[in-house]
Structure formats: structure tokens, C-alpha cells
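Onboarding guide, step 5: your first structure request.
Type a short instruction followed by the sequence, for example:

Predict the 3D structure of this protein.
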Amino acid sequence: MIYLIIKYLLTALAIVVISETAKASDKLGGLVAALPLITIISLIWLYIEQQPTAKIANHAYYTFWYVIPTLPMFPLFAWMLPRFGFWPTLLSCIFVTALLFYGYAQLLKIFNIHLL
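The system replies with C-alpha cells like these:
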């Protein structure tokens, strides 16, 4: 139980560091947020928990493919925010990202990459 609490606290710390950095500097906050910190932490936890190498490698592999369709959300969010406000922008970006992801997953099936 203690181990799980430590995992939660350390993972939450990464999110706090990102948001606090973004308060101080837009550019630095964006840079820190763009780093794959959560993925790196996940890979470390999987390794510490002695998961098979294949499982850790698969996690990294699928993370790569899942990131690509999420990238358009960021410029869309920046464009929509001043025009529509935070919540409508966030909800719209989530919806658009889900649509892009679904289409992307269907496209990748052609190349025998199955995300869904």
C-alpha cells in the first residue's frame, strides 16, 4: 500500500512541476509539458515492478503511435481558446482528438498496426 501511495505522489509531483513551471514561463512550461515525463515515469514503474521487457517495449511502441493523432489538438486549442472560452474549447478539442484518433487507427490497420 505504501508503494502505491509513493507511486501516486511521485507521479502527481510531475504534473505539479509542469503546471507550476507553466505559471512562471509559457515557453519553459510548454517545453516541460512536451517532454514525455509521464511516459518515462510509466516506463520506470514498469521496470521497477519487474514487468517483462516485451511489455515495457510495447508500452513505448504504442505510446509513439498514440501521440501522433493528439498533436493537432494543441494548435487547435490555442486558436479556439480566445474565440470560444476554456470549456467549449477543451470539450471541442477532446472530441476532435477522439475523431482523429479513430480515423488514424483505421488508417494504420492498412499497415498492420492495430491500435483499437
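Each response can be followed by summary notes, for example: The two ends are 32 Å apart (CA to CA).
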